[in-house]
UniProtKB/TrEMBL annotation, chain A:
It is a peripheral membrane protein. This is Simple sugar transport system ATP-binding protein. Residues 5-242, 259-503 form the ABC transporter domain. The keyword Hydrolase does not apply. The lineage of its organism: Bacteria, Bacillati, Bacillota, Clostridia, Eubacteriales. One of its GO terms (molecular function) is ATP binding. It is found in: Cell membrane. The keyword Cell membrane applies. One of its GO terms (cellular component) is plasma membrane. PROSITE patterns: ABC_TRANSPORTER_1, ABC_TRANSPORTER_2. InterPro entries: AAA+_ATPase, ABC_carbohydrate_import_ATPase, ABC_transporter-like_ATP-bd, ABC_transporter-like_CS, P-loop_NTPase.
Automatic annotation (TrEMBL), chain B:
It is found in: Cell membrane. The keyword Chaperone does not apply. Its main location: membrane. GO terms for molecular function: transmembrane transporter activity. It comes from the Bacteria. The chain crosses the membrane at residues 12-34, 46-63, 69-88, 95-116, 154-171, 201-220, 278-296. Coiled coil: none annotated. It is a multi-pass membrane protein. Keywords: Cell membrane, Membrane, Sugar transport, Transmembrane, Transmembrane helix, Transport. This is Simple sugar transport system permease protein. PANTHER family: GUANOSINE ABC TRANSPORTER PERMEASE PROTEIN NUPQ, SUGAR ABC TRANSPORTER INTEGRAL MEMBRANE PROTEIN-RELATED.
Amino acid sequence: MEEILAMKGITKVYPNGIVANKDVDFSVRKGEIHAIMGENGAGKSTLMKILFGMEQPEEGEIYYKGEKVILHSPNTAINYGIGMVHQHFMLVPSLTVAENMVLGVEPKKSSVLFDFEKAVQMTEEVSQKYNLAIDPKAIVEDLAVGKKQKLEILKALLRGAEVLILDEPTAVLTPQETKELFEELINLKNQGFTIIFISHKLKEIKQITDRLTILRNGRSMGIHETKAISEQEISRLMVGRDVVLKVDKQPATPGDVVIETKGLSYHDATGKPVVNQMSFRVRKGEIMGIAGVEGNGQGELVELITGLKKPSVGDIFIGGVPVKDLTVKEIRNLKTSHIPEDRMVYGVAAEGTIGENLISDRFDHPKYNGKLLQKVKSLISRSEELIKDYKVKCDGHTQQVNMLSGGNIQKVVVAREFSSDPKLIVADQPTRGIDVGSTEFIRRKLVELRDEGTAVLLVSADLNEVLELSDSLMVMYGGEIAAYFEDASQVDEMELGMYMLGLKTMEQHEMGGATGE
Amino acid sequence: MGSLFDIIFSANFGYAVLRVTTPILFASLGALISIKAGVVNISMEGTMLTAALAGVAISAYTGSAFGGLVGAVVVGMLLGLLLAYFALNLKTDIILAAIAINLMASGGTVFGLFVISGDRGISSSLASKVLPRIQIPILHQIPVLGPVFSNHNVLTYVAFISVALVYILLYKTPLGLRIRAVGENAHAADSVGISVKKTQYIALIMSGAFAGFGGAFMSMGYVSWFSTNMIAGRGFIALAAEALGMGRPFGVLLTSLLFGSADALANALQAFRIPSEFVQMVPYVVTIIGLVVYAQRKHSAAQKVRQEDRA
């Protein structure tokens, strides 16, 4: 197969001095699915941004169909036939599918007006041609995530893309949606399209790609035939050591109930129940996982428990204390820790130093706070201790948090939350978007704390994580408990998918007495 | 107070409502376009004030009312451009930049007026022109409707026609689609090659143009002179009208009419023995009540559903 695209000696240094790519060679053959793998901060996104014209490299050349090209902007890339499906969808929610499709290349009638009918027709044509069914008149905000992604792919195809870059496309999908996406990608591949697929997930990459490029610390670790390389070899190349993907853990020995909810409900501003009549409990020394497609009330449930939102109906008890009317601080004082979903908004003060962030939950503790001034020395020594214990890679406690990589920022959050001797940890997507090394570290810590008797409520979109870590497992769908498994190790992934998509719901008696009723 | 009702239900009052709604409507349409593009223009007040002076000065200088109108609109557009340059190129906070324009206008117009006419308060020494009124042929003869709808200043008709034009612009043209896309998700627009900056420049310049029309109406239609601070908060009332209008051109029309009615009522009440300071409060009080009702309704709609759920 001929080479459609090649990048040679790409070096990219960001203004803040971070070398994102160093002398990277990369090439793709026409009609293949090519994976780009690497830990967070390995330079995958930067390399793809360069390829899509969003960033300019300091050094290096890009060849497209044998010709040297300079990609000034996404527009240039699109004109050459390079399209990108971003991880965060580039869609306008209030507009229709057809309007999103033609944005920027709007068809006109009588030379001034927007021709909506034509837009619908164009959408239908592309949709039929590539067998990606979508309703052109649907409003984008009503679409499921999988459909939005489909729309993004169609947008690129409409603009004449021959090379499609997909940035972690499966991160937001259910197992069923992922399967559908893979079928569509293979279908596109058979029609001659070239697909570049960015992912962390080894299993998927083995399943769908022809070749793969591994990046580590901004350098390429070579291009490999997917069939010829083992999963262990890939992870060794990615992190430079063999990552244990299985979490070693002993069976749980649950004790007393730590958190219990009764008929917990939350209604959003429009009055819709986002969390509906949830009753469950988590015991000491137990990890209860919550699986579910994002946006089925998990985020709100976490906010209710941690006091960021107040329940509309129902009660929450932590260690027997009703917490419904308590402040966030009072709930934290009940030894509740919270790893928030969005670390940059709720997890850290990005402009603050690592030290400041590490003590932000306990700066007023007498140990660190004198009558008038803070006890700087004990603050510093505690920060340094935590940085060491949690292996935060940084220049010291005075470094700004937003200078760190995602994985290290999350380690700062985790260090703070895990070091306060918690009785309950509410972990919302604790390893989202971070590198394998940090992920493994955080997962191991969670299991350690469980063994020490902490109750853990784990919300994660990563099914493997939920299945691997959880002792018991709950599935949320539409704000309700769709299923409960006393023993998470007995759960089948495909069956779980059925509950997650709402295709199946357990009856009350199937869930057993364990949900607190 | 019986005679108050006589006043309100008279054709004169209806005529007055349309007349005083005109500047508010212009400004709120301008604000609407800017907000749709995600760049709120709160300098409508200062822009209208500056445009009002520009209209008077240029019409006096050229001897042409039309020339004054064009001048006012161009000045409005230039101020929109200035705001865009500050906010989009120099990356200043758009609210602060707009406040600066408002302050600059309130002082600058007094200075400008003094330089041009030697007066500090009013431009009556300038031979400025007034934009024509239009009698609508058949409608003019019809009782009640005629006195209400006919014989308005040309800009009053332009304002009401603009509602439909803005609707077509925002919802039926590629530019409108782009404006809405940019305002809602600039990254999405950017990723398909739409220049966010250019689109926002266009929106701010258009909002300035509408403020220019509003300003021209004030000094060359509503009255025939410029006086200091003559916009008297209409540019801010327009922002409230935009918010209450739910971001839709026809919603904005209705809320502008509401505030226009309050304004007209204040004018009518001046005939009674009520302290004029109190009467002049009416439009602003209505603005505040309007905003409270708006917020309350959003709140109670949510609460109602919540209670139904509980039952």
